[in-house]
Amino acid sequence: MFAGAPQYIVSGLTQGAAYGLIGLGFTMIFNTTGIINFAQGEFVMLGGMLSVCLLGAGLPLPLAIVAACLATAVIGGLMERLTIRPLAGAPAVNAVIITIGVSILLRGGAMLAFGKDTVALPAFSGVKPILALGAAIQPQSLWVLAVTLALLAALKLFFSATIQGKAMLACACQKKAASLVGISVARMALLSFAISGLIGATAGAILAPITMTAYDVGMMLGLKGFAACILGGLGNPFGAAAGGLLLGVLESFGAGYVASGYKDAFAFIVLLLLLFVKPSGLFGKAGVERV
Amino acid sequence: MKRPILGQNAAQAVLFFALLLAVPYGLPNEYYLSICILGSLNAVIAVGLNLLMGYAGQVSLGHAAFYGLGAYATAICTTRFGLPIPVGMAAGVTLAAAVAWIVALPTLKLKGNYLAMATLGFGIIVSIVFNEAVDLTGGPSGFVGIPRLALFGHTFESDHGYYNLMAVVLTLVVLLALNLMKSRTGRALRALHVSEKAASSLGVDIAAHKRFVFVLSAALAGLAGVLYAHYLSFIAPASFGFSFSVQLVVMVVLGGMASVWGSVAGAFFLTALPEALREFEDIDILVYGAILVLTIMYLPDGLAGGIKRLSRKLRRTGVDDARS
Predict the structure, then answer these.
(1) What is the per-residue pLDDT across A112-162, written as a single tens digit (0 to 9) for each?
(2) Is B297 domain-assigned?
(3) Whether A261 contacts chain B with CB within 8 A
(4) Which of residues 181-220 of B touch A (CB under 8 A)?
(5) How far off is chain B from A98, nearest CA to CA, in Å?
(6) Any chain A CB within 8 A of the CB of B277?
(7) Is B183 exposed, middle or buried (0-12, 13-18, 19+ CB in 10 A)?
(8) Burial category of B184 from C-beta neighbours within 10 Å (exposed 0-12, middle 13-18, buried 19 and up)
(9) From the candidates A35, A37, A94, A100, which should be mutated to test the interface with B, based on the most B CB atoms within 10 A?
(10) Is B66 part of a structural domain of the chain?
(11) Is B109 on the interface with A (CB under 8 A)?
(12) Which residues in chain B have their CB less than 8 angstroms from residue A111's CB?
């Protein structure tokens, strides 16, 4: 009955790590600005596509990936500065719609700049699978998990040991109080978009050797990352990461045992069920207000 | 008190209807007429979506799914089950409304944009089902052989006839929306948009009102879907995906939230736009994005709000001129 389960777990965790990172990006922006950034998936696409593009331009692989992630962080910051900040005070609906607009622009720009072809990044350290516990593990899967864990650790450190990180937490907690003690809420918003860009792009770059990438992969990845962060409880960064892993495994098992054609639907079925049953998410506090 | 307002709406609607009927005579060929039919179908959905977004302050990112449910329901009823067309149409609208009611039941009790999330997930699931349930829907290659619309023994063979029918439908939908907003329900919706706390302390059942307007807007999308299916006689899942849901939101935002006429204008404009941009093939997606971003940034109340502001400005300068 559970033939192939280890394999599904491995591939689910790999994919799920990426969802988790994307969800993490959603959460960071939501916490500091209260905005759900629908352009998050495009950051992921940019991470993959820019890496491929820079590699093609002659940069060595590690340098290409770092440069792509930094460039995406800058794009994230620019997005906040140019489209989100001027909207301060407008209804939340407007901000959500503008992020949809920016995501369309980024996708369109990527299509013009990189073309419509699906491209792949070479795996970081070969493609010879490692056999363990009845599963064939791609070395790239280990890279994905390792990078995800490293990023989570770095973020944990950022939030608990740096003044900027603490200031960001303060914004998430109470914006007015934060600005009263001298924290620039606007700068924190800028920083959160830049970090989200960085995290999203990293997810895109480490996933690109496994799933390949194209100008239009951002939407589905972004939506699933969003499902991951609802699953983990909107507003809880590490819950989002856990939600992502869970979602990846669920999806992998669903595709393996139920119906592979409906693979993309599982994430959203879970999302709907959760909204029906426990809208605060698995790890969220029961703080969702009812009217 | 009530009569004059309704009278005013009726007068506007009659004017609008006359304008719609006159349009075909100004068009160079039949092809443009089909764009007008699609435009009026989109306008029906946009007016409904605007009731939700502009008046109740909730976003739906899955309205294309209700459009699709209407279209597929009538397609399946009239061809696979051989039911008469009116039955298929009723089934399409009912299905869209019933499904919306189920989606709304838990989500609209929550504060915030949970409806946006639920409709987003729901829309994607529906579009995957359209693609995968090949036995029922024909899968990605589409559903062929839907009968052309026939009502009361009259078959709408020509595009002109169909367009006239759409003019009637759109006018009635616009009238319904205008009157609804002037009614008790409309006032309650506007009140809860401004402040849910204040509205509920005045006895407005917030969840019930939001649910009502969401179901109504889904039913209108279903109606448009039904009419779409019996017009083209061919439907495919690509027409009912997430990107169409986003396009519908753009229509509402561009036209101006909380403006019925704005939504109509936004729908016709954005339906015609790809035709105008055909020469530039791939950049139409960029233009959509740019319109959306620029509208929100510089015209937050859309075309309708912009025109209102412009006319107020002109009037003021007129007054200044008269004074000087």
Answers:
(1) 888 888 888 888 887 778 777 777 788 888 888 999 999 989 988 988 888
(2) no
(3) yes
(4) 196, 200, 206-207
(5) 5
(6) no
(7) middle
(8) exposed
(9) A100
(10) yes
(11) yes
(12) 282, 285
The per-residue pLDDT for A2 is 60
- Mean pLDDT lowest for which of A45-54, A197-206, B142-151, B247-256? B142-151
Q: Pick the closest to residue B144 from B94, B224, B80, B81 (CA basis).
A: B80
Contact partners, residue A13, CB within 8 Å, separation at least 6: A141, A145, A245, A248, A249
pLDDT of residue A1: 47
The one-letter amino acid code at B306 reads G
* Domains of chain A: total: 1
Residue numbers of the domain that contains A236: 5-120+139-277
pLDDT tens digits along B225-261: 999 998 988 888 888 888 888 888 888 888 888 788 8
For residue B155, list its beta bridge partners: B150
The total number of structural domains in chain B stands at 1
Token digits of residue A256:
């393996």
Q: Do the chains contact at A101 and B293, CB–CB below 8 Å?
A: yes
Q: Chain B, 238-257: which have a CB under 8 Å from a chain A CB? A: 242, 246, 249, 253, 257
Measured between CB atoms, does A258 come within 8 Å of chain B? no
The CA-to-CA distance between both ends of chain B, in Å, stands at 39
Number of Cβ atoms within 10 Å of the Cβ of B190: 16
Report yes or no on B245 lying in a domain: no
Q: In Å, what is the CA distance from B194 to each residue of A91, A152, B197?
A: 11, 40, 9
Chain B residues within 8 A of A223 when measuring between CB atoms? 120, 124, 242
Q: Which domain holds residue B44?
A: 2-240
Residue A211 domain flag: yes
Phi-psi sector, A194: left (phi>0), alpha (psi -120 to 50), beta: alpha
CATH code for the domain in which residue A33 is found: 1.10.3470
Would A284 be classed as within a structural domain? no
Residues 223-252 of A with CB under 8 A from B: 223, 226-227, 230
Q: Does residue B291 belong to any structural domain of this protein?
A: no
Q: With contacts defined as CB-CB under 8 Å, which chain A residues touch B121?
A: 227, 267-269, 271-272, 275
Distance of alpha carbon A238 from alpha carbon A251, whole angstroms: 20
B128–chain A Cβ distance below 8 A for any pair:
yes
Q: Is residue A219 part of a domain?
A: yes
Q: For residues B47 and B218, give the distance between their C-alpha atoms in angstroms, rounded to a whole number.
A: 11
3-state secondary structure B39-102: HHHHHHHHHHHHHHHHHCCCCCCCHHHHHHHHHHHHHHHHHHCCCCHHHHHHHHHHHHHHHHHH
pLDDT of amino acid B110: 66
- Chain position carrying tokens 């606007």: A186
